Amino acid sequence: MQLYQIKRRLNMAIDTLRFNDNYLLINDVNERSITHKLATYMEQTFGKIYDIDCEYNRDIGDLKKISILKSKWYEVNNNTVIAEDERFSEILIEKTVFPDIIVHKRGEPDENLLIIEVKKSTSSVTADYDIEKLKCYTDPDNGLNYQYGAFIKFYTSEKKYQSPDIRYFSKGKEITE
Fold this sequence. Notes:
The protein has 177 residues and is α+β, with helices and mostly antiparallel strands. It has four helices and ten strands. Helix 1 runs antiparallel to helix 2 (31-46). It is 34% helix and 27% strand. The protein has helices spanning 3-26, 31-46, 70-78, 128-138; strands spanning 51-54, 58-59, 62-63, 65-69, 92-96, 101-104, 112-120, 146-154, 165-170, 173-174.
């Protein structure tokens, strides 16, 4: 599936969420409630071809993990760079991850189409770690084989609907068009 097709299907699911469940956005409910409903609508646009899962933590039979530079992990989680010798920045660590939503074919590691991380505008946590995870998920060297990643920032607690910000990733980098 091409990126333009993914964008079209994802936008249809977001529009349906806004139309049917805008209450969740206006009332700033938990992120998991929003991602669950979004995944439900994604089943209508992707579901005949792919499985849609929330918080799916398996890579076949193993826990889903990403490899990330230790210095980057500290930076995005603590908002500080740990100053140690030069070798520290080159150490890879594995972290177990629970993606918000994935579009894939269960049990087929070469059929990982899209991985989504969602953040609310009212979240006290920065999006930096989600962005780094999307780069890792889509990096061919990480072994998770996701073709595309999407970061969605929903504007919550707003009486007037504002379209979410969506950023796309592929091959370990953000797609800029």
